[in-house]
Amino acid sequence: MIRDKFPKSSIHLLILPRTGRTRLHPFVAFQDGDLLASTRAEAIKVKGMVAEELRRMFGRESVTEGVRRAAIEHGIDDGGVVPEGRDWEAEVMVGVHAGPSMSHLHVHVLSRDRISPCMKHGKHYNSFNTEFFVGLEELPLKEEDVRWRKDRGGGLREDLECWRCGRGFENRFAKLKSHLDEEFEEWKKD
Amino acid sequence: MIRDKFPKSSIHLLILPRTGRTRLHPFVAFQDGDLLASTRAEAIKVKGMVAEELRRMFGRESVTEGVRRAAIEHGIDDGGVVPEGRDWEAEVMVGVHAGPSMSHLHVHVLSRDRISPCMKHGKHYNSFNTEFFVGLEELPLKEEDVRWRKDRGGGLREDLECWRCGRGFENRFAKLKSHLDEEFEEWKKD
DNA sequence: TATTCCGATAGTGAC
DNA sequence: GTCACTATCGGAATGAG
Fold it and tell me: Among all strands, which nt has the closest C1' to A97 (CA)?
């Protein structure tokens, strides 16, 4: 597991599965059930780490975390049940690109926020927010799945759409970018 | 006569004819024979001024001027004939645009060099180096002249071509620009 | 669908 | 094709082992 050198979210890691066949397309490589199983096991761990890191980074601003923290700090007795706090794992994505450029097989593990100075154009954004991004849990792809044919990157030119509120931005990346800054502030408060 | 606020050559003046009908397209305005005649008279004067200014600015670098200057300074007697020196008027263009943007009727008077920090893109260049530029001496246009229909600026997208050596630059304005710098040095030596 | 640099292209708003 | 500003789009070079 390494940090992505050009992160596209506030947390963005890569899992590099230990296998001799790292140059295969991920859809193909993960047809190997053993590799898929071991990578999923690793992904569960990494996802947990990322969730904890998100809690550490943003928990103080989260309303849901605040309820939990208040229960702990003030010893509020609600039948002995301490609220769960925010489900940070739900904010973490794990998956591969339909047309990865790097030669080495890799799985992305990243938060949903898309806040990073390296998120510089629409293709960056769409590569994690369209069908170009395929969750590890969706592999292996069925033979007839259309995403086998997405490796030419056509979908990366789709209109931009905010992952949180669904608002459309056509091709106006700069506008999306500043909108994401606003959404980020709200997202942290969830 | 005023200086063009955004000159596209090392000398670039505008003649603003005194007429009540300054909002007409120049092709139409100069169908008025009197206006055309008086503007041509003015243009002859301005062209002469520009030529003298070019001589002052660049004459010292001109080989042709050098021959004349040598004859004068050294009193070389060539049958009493002093060489003419360079024909700077031949380096001055006088004309209008087929699709002018300014509302006020104006005639451009400028040197051929196209050397100016205000010459910033291909349309600037082509507006003086394609059929989009119509010499004052070509007016009035005959009824069937195709340039009546050039006022939509289509020709401004033509491939760029060096006015001096004819070399083509497709749409690579930056390349043309640095080439013009080189041509400028040679042109001054003529 | 690696980044980065440069430059061409496109829309806007102002004057 | 007025300018100036911003941003989008497009090609070319890049470089580790």
Answer: C1
Catalytic pick among A25, A74, A104, A106: A106
Average pLDDT, integer, range A95-117:
93
Give residue B130's pLDDT.
96
Q: From the Cβ of B156, is strand D under 7 Å away? A: yes
Instruction: Give B109: exposed, middle or buried? Use CB within 10 Å, 0-12, 13-18, 19+.
Output: buried
Nucleotide with smallest C1' distance to residue B157 CA: D1
* pLDDT value at residue A152: 78
pTM: 0.90
Which nucleotide C1' is nearest B122 CA?
C8
DSSP result, A46-88: HHHHHHHHHHHHHGGG-HHHHHHHHHHHTT--STTPPP----G
- Alpha carbons B127 and A108: distance in angstroms, whole number: 52
Alpha-carbon gap, residue A181 to A160, rounded angstroms: 15
- Say how far residue A93 (Cα) sits from the centre of its chain: 3
The CA–C1' separation of B62 and C5, in angstroms, is 39
Is A74 noted as a catalytic residue in this protein? no
Residue A17 CB coordination number (10 Å)? 20
Is residue B116 a contact partner of residue B69, using CB atoms and an 8 Å limit? no
CA-to-CA dists, residue A7 to A92, A116, A118, A173, B180, angstroms: 14, 7, 6, 17, 43
Q: Are B83 and B68 in contact (CB under 8 A)?
A: yes
On strand D, nucleotides with any atom < 7 Å from a protein CB are: 1-4, 6-9
